[in-house]
Amino acid sequence: MLNLDGYDLVMLSMVNKSIRSQTKDNLLWRKICFREFPNDIIRMNYEGKDISLNNNNWFNLWKEIDKKNSTIIFAEQPQFSLMIPPCWTKNESDGLHPKIIKTTMPYFDVHAIFGTLMPGIYQMVWEIKIGSLKNGQNFKFITKVSDKDWKKTINYAYKPRPYEIENLSNKGWLKFKVPTKIFVQENSNVKTELRRYTNLEENEISLWIKSMELYSVQLVRCC
């Protein structure tokens, strides 16, 4: 079991009760945490946190670190974003989305970088809230997977069709899962971008998007 990564071990635990009991071993999950997230564990040690075997539920710690490394909440983690443009302002929304960024601009892009990802196939999930949309407004989701030196890059892009954009409008907070599957190899960097553009003219300002709020972007592993 130690040869499996954390995600595969979770999938294995769903086979039956006997295997599930074997996958609950705390020492096993401690070894997986140190193997998959060494920098995070070392950082915990420098922060004076107890990382001994008996004082932690290492499976819960694995879930916590895995979620942290695969999710960027923009208003809380601006250091993980290359740039949050001036057109975005920080706001508060509700209990589930306490810190967000918001814009009323007709065109923009916002992007973020992920590191410390286990190899696998992922999908990008954007948690967004979009106001009224009219014809002539478009979104594009772009993801680049590069080696650790940013020299070799694989590009993925997805442009929603008009009916998909209409289904995003005035629906409140929603999680839009980009259909494109992303293959991540070991030691890869992932840069993702949400771009919005319009072919409306300035004198059609009343047709522009009323507002867009952005909470987070997450890489969800498929297999």
From TrEMBL:
Lineage, top ranks: Eukaryota, Fungi, Fungi incertae sedis, Mucoromycota, Glomeromycotina
Superkingdom field: Eukaryota
Name of the molecule in the record: 13686_t:CDS:1
Source organism of this protein record: Dentiscutata heterogama
